[in-house]
Amino acid sequence: MSDPVLLPLLGGPPPERRDAARNREALLVAAQELVDSCGVDHVTMEAVAARAGVGKGTVFRRFESREGLMAALLDRSETVWQAAVISGPPPLGPGADPMERLLAFGRSRLTTTMRHAELIRAAGRAGSRSYAAWSFTAMHVRYLLGELHVAGDLPILATALLAPLEVPVLEQQLSVEAFPLERVAAGWEDLARRVVRPPGA
Amino acid sequence: MSDPVLLPLLGGPPPERRDAARNREALLVAAQELVDSCGVDHVTMEAVAARAGVGKGTVFRRFESREGLMAALLDRSETVWQAAVISGPPPLGPGADPMERLLAFGRSRLTTTMRHAELIRAAGRAGSRSYAAWSFTAMHVRYLLGELHVAGDLPILATALLAPLEVPVLEQQLSVEAFPLERVAAGWEDLARRVVRPPGA
């Protein structure tokens, strides 16, 4: 689609800000490509600058540090995932029945979190446990438990379903205990069914 | 009781080692008293040395750093708690029925973890998520689930019961969401009952 709008939309960012956002996005795309092809550990500020065709100083001006860049990558990936939950195809997105959505949520969150684990580590303090990310998942699970007519303290039950999907708990299971991913995913589904089924079921 | 043993017991530590252990314990007792009376933040190597009546150098020699001291305090407190689970009075210790023990475990672990949270933070890297502590609780919960004849992947279900008792998840609920402790404890009991009850119950 072409963009015939010459003046900024009411409430939209001014053109200079939009340029800055576009440049920032280009740097994040370059960084994400490097992560995908070489792994988080190989992504340096220099490599991102080279790939995006800008000076190293530009990357530092936008993100301050490698930690800041990693935090921005994490934020971007989390946003993409949340968009899939809110408006992507079922069963993760709307349209499937709530139990199917809950099971799809667990599986998708598990793999997303493991993909994010390295970024979280690389982001250091900047990537420490994000309240915004937790809050989104908590609201979503609470909503699905409500749709499933689960009786009980839904915020606490939502927390109980999310806690096993936290990075240190997943790493304990996948890396330390060396359980296969499929076993951990199936275990979460079993937990979700136990939490959801009515007492007399 | 007097101690008539003049020679070290077979397999016991030599006297010099025993003295070292006693001195170490005296320093840890002094540090724990300071924690109890002033809070973790006020416990310095100097204050511990002064209270135990030794030089600051002695405290540094034993624990290397304040982080090391905090890790040792954490370790000691965890050991005391584990002893209560293994051989303390019921319902946390043996003697109660397994469901009572499981509920007592959850409540006790919740308060112990919150009491430990500050020590864990103060211990920095030295106090990072302890595999030994996790492993003990995982084995205990798995054992109780077995006694309760729960059908399923018990190591995974045990993990699901332990994950909501991890420090960041508890702090999320108690500090960020500001849920009362009693609500979080009751929510864990509800979770435990949902996990334990048979599908047809």
Automatic annotation (TrEMBL), chains A, B:
Keywords: DNA-binding. It holds the Pfam family TetR_N. InterPro entries: Homeodomain-like_sf, HTH-type_TetR-like_transc_reg, HTH_TetR. Residues 44-63 bind DNA. The keyword DNA-binding applies. Residues 21-81 form the HTH tetR-type domain. This is TetR/AcrR family transcriptional regulator. The lineage of its organism: Bacteria, Bacillati, Actinomycetota, Actinomycetes, Propionibacteriales.
